[in-house]
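# step 3/5: fold
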Amino acid sequence: MAKKDQAKKNTAKKNGGFKDYFKGIKTEISKVVWPTRKELGTFTGVVIATCAIFALGFWLIDSGILLALKTVLGITLN
């Protein structure tokens, strides 16, 4: 019985309040390796370029499907 009570006390200590929660966040944030300004610029450029490539690809696919549907259904725009 005493072991169960001790286990509950240890669990209660581990499940601290808001102060411990934010202290843990601060500890974890300090472990993060932040990118340098140059790396950040490079990563941003890669993301923008990738988005542009995918947007162009989706536009081409959409236009191709629209053209195919217009051809199959015989729709003309005047």
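# step 4/5: annotate
The chain has a mean pLDDT of 86.
# step 5/5: archive (pending)
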